[in-house]
Design a protein that fits this description.
Blueprint lengths: L8 H10 L17 E5 L7 H13 L3 E7 L3 H7 L4 E6 L13 H9 L7 E4 L7 H16 L4 E3 L2 H8 L10 E3 L3 H10 L16 H17 L4 E4 L5 E3 L4 E3 L12 H20 L17 H9 L7 H27 L5 H5 L2 H8 L11
Helix pairs in contact: 1-11, 2-9, 4-5, 6-7, 9-11, 11-13
């Protein structure tokens, strides 16, 4: 496997810590233990996004990858890959008798009934803006939160949060992945004054980088400490306590659908994180009672070679690792395809990017 050049020392440390939350491949595990992830999204107009997200989750290594979509999207998404389990459970204006008078909690019940079987959710890819659908998904978000199921919000999933920030405010098992425009909308909804992200000068500009980190940290704090990946020429990740910047080079083509590789990768990383905290395997680390409450606490956990990481630190690490893998997919796909690069080209690079950046953990059996 070819190495990735120009990785900073700090990033190498983060990759070595990210490897800690990756379950080793062991004969004792059974189907489903290494990740059951569901993408909630997909409507008549948008079937590619939920597919790209779910297949990235599968390619990274989750055991079971689901798509929960609107009825008309189900046969189309299913036709893309038999490896995905597709469920036509999302209601829409077209599928209810009276769109103006609905019982959203009842309509959401078939999806909510699946939550106990899932480790993580990705909400938003191809969701669309149908009023009935968005109300039902808001109920699913409430139910997932009440059950402490981690989730990623992107695209029109972020629109739900923009209209009702209270849905996620204070929920520490949540990752938002806004682009420049979505970040601005969220900041405005929370009453945060941030300078425009559209005038980014160049990578390596420390002042600009600090400005972006500050803005991301402000928004995270305003939302009670949710983790935010602010996508851009470089990705800024913050949980309101600590901010990190991805220095992994991406490709130069901005094709639609690249963000779906990010959300799917995050879904699998969140599922692996759950397995790590459930102690599904012996990581060789020592337990400690203190959660990381400050920047120094997080730094101490990331620099320690034998201390088990707390949930706040592993969530930040999962977000950073998902960003890095996606950027490496983009770099490699662009290297191969140039300006013709499409979202499906990133899909082909997910596993290789994982191996180059993070690699299999110690004790993994990759050969029979």
């Amino acid at each position: 496997m070819e190495p990735v050049h120009h990785i900073s020392t700090s990033s190498k440390i983060l990759f070595s810590k990210a490897r800690k939350i990756v379950p080793p491949m062991l004969e004792k595990f059974h189907k489903g233990q290494l990740g059951r992830v569901a993408v909630i999204g997909g409507c008549a107009d948008y079937t590619g996004a939920p597919y790209f997200s779910a297949i990235a989750s599968a390619k990274l290594g989750c055991d079971m990858s689901h798509v929960l979509c609107e009825r008309s999207a189900a046969p189309v998404v299913k036709s893309y890959s038999p490896n995905l389990m597709v469920h036509p459970l999302l209601p829409s204006t077209e599928t209810v008798k009276d769109p103006k008078s609905i019982d959203a909690p009842s309509l959401a019940e078939p999806i909510i009934g699946m939550l106990s079987r899932l480790h993580a959710l990705v909400i938003g890819p191809g969701l669309g803006r149908d009023g009935v659908t968005l109300k039902v998904v808001a109920e699913v978000i409430k139910a997932a939160r009440s059950r402490s199921i981690p989730f990623v919000l992107d695209a029109d999933g972020l629109l739900i949060v923009t209209e009702d920030p209270g849905l996620v405010k204070g929920y520490k098992d949540c990752i938002l992945t806004p682009n420049v425009v979505e970040f601005g909308r969220l900041a405005k909804a929370l009453g945060i004054n941030v300078s425009s992200q559209a005038d980014i000068t160049k990578d390596g500009d420390n002042d600009k980088c600090n400005e972006e980190s500050d803005a991301c940290e402000q928004l995270s704090k305003a939302l009670g400490g949710v983790t935010i990946i602010q996508k851009g020429p470089h990705d800024v990740i913050s949980n309101g306590v600590t901010s990190v910047v991805s220095d992994i080079q991406g490709g130069l083509k901005r094709s639609g659908g690249q963000g779906d590789t990010l959300t799917g990768s995050l879904g699998t990383l969140l599922a692996w994180r759950a397995a790590y905290h459930d102690k599904l395997w012996d990581s060789g680390e020592k337990d400690h009672d203190k959660d990381a409450q400050t920047k120094d606490d997080v730094q101490d956990e990331l620099e320690s070679k034998d201390k088990r990481m707390s949930p706040g630190t592993t969530l930040l690490l999962a977000a950073w690792a998902g960003s890095a893998i996606t950027r490496e997919c983009s770099r490699k796909a662009f290297e191969l395809k140039g300006r013709s690069m499409q979202a499906s080209d990133l899909t082909d690079e997910v596993h290789g990017s994982f191996l180059r950046l993070i690699g299999e953990p110690e004790g993994s059996k990759t050969h029979l």
